[in-house]
Amino acid sequence: MPTPGTRLADEFDRAAPRYDLLTALNPGYHGALRDAARQLVARLPRRETWPTLWDLGCGSGLSTQALVDAAGPEARIVGLDASAGMLAQAQEKTWPDGVSFVQALAQDLPDVALLHLDGPADGAFGAYLLRNVPVDQRDATVAAIADQVRPGGWIALQDYHVKGSPAAQAVWSAVCWGVVTPLSVAVRGNPSIYRYLWRSVLENDSTAELQARLERAGLTDVTWSTAGGWQHGTLHTVLARKPL
Predict the structure, then answer these.
(1) Given Cys at both, which of 14, 56, 146, 198 links 217, Cβ 3.0 to 4.6 Å?
(2) Taking a C-beta distance cutoff of 8 angstroms, is the pair 193, 14 a contact?
(3) CA geometry: angle at 225 spanning 28 and 20, to 5°?
(4) 3-state secondary structure 86-123
(5) Kind and range of the H or E element at 23?
(6) Among 135, 85, 140, CA closest to 109
(7) Are 172 and 234 in contact (CB under 8 A)?
(8) 8 A C-beta contact, residue 180 and residue 91
(9) Are 146 and 217 spatial neighbours (Cβ–Cβ below 8 Å)?
C-alpha cells in the first residue's frame, strides 16, 4: 500500500511539468528564494574550501539555483526530493559539476548522507519542506537535518506560516482560491496539488511551534524574517545555528 509520502510524491510528479511556469507567475517567489539563500551563505563560517550544502525538498531545482547563485559555482550542493518528476525537471537543467540530486524523503537524510557526502555539510536549506513531513515526524526530521550540519554551520528554512494569524490565513486563502488554483487549471498544472498546498499551509506549524522544534534539536541563534509584497506576514524565513 502506498505511504502518505509516496502518494504526495505522485501528486508532485503530476504537477512537475508546469511547476516552474506557475512559480514564475508568483510575484516574489524567486526573489524570496534568492534572499533566503544569500542569508544562509552569508552566515557560513569561513573555510579554505568551497561550502557544502544540502538543498532539502529541492523540487525542480529552483532553490538549488538560488544556492548556486549565492554560494558560487564551485560549491558542493546535494539536492534531495521525494518526487521523481520534480527531480527529472531539475536534472534537465544545466548545473555546475558540484551539483547533484538524489531521490529520497527528508526523513531519510541520515542514510542518504552516508552515500553522498564525506561528512557533515556546512549548511542546509529547506524551502517549503517541513509542512510536507507528517507532524509526528517533524521533530525527528529537524534533528536529522541538524545532525548533518557541522558545528558552527547554519540551517535556513523558508515556508508559509499563517497559523494563529486570521489576517494571514485570509490572505493565503484568497490567493490560493482566487489566483493559484485558477492558474493551475489554465496551464494544466494538476490543481489537486494546489488544493493540498492551501490546506497544508493552514495546518503548518506556527512560527512559535517551529522555533520550539529547532530549539529541541539543540539549534541556537534563531532569527526570523518575512517577505515583502503580498507574502508579508505569510512567508517566513528562519535561520538557526548548530552550536560549536
Answers:
(1) 146
(2) yes
(3) 30
(4) HHHHHHCCCCCCCEEEEECCHHHHHHHHHHHCCCCEEE
(5) helix 4-24
(6) 140
(7) yes
(8) no
(9) yes
Check residue 84 and give its pLDDT: 95
Q: What is each CA distance from 121 to 34, 67, 146, 151, 190, in whole angstroms?
A: 20, 14, 10, 9, 35
**Which three cell numbers, joined as nine digits, stand for 172?**
493565503
Distance (Å, rounded) from C-alpha 63 to C-alpha 157? 11
User: What is the mean pLDDT for each group of 10 consecutive residues in the chain (244 residues)?
Assistant: 61 82 84 97 90 96 97 97 95 97 93 89 97 96 96 97 96 89 69 83 97 98 95 97 97
Locate 89 and state its grid cell: 525537471
Domains of the chain: 26-159+204-241 (3.40.50.150)
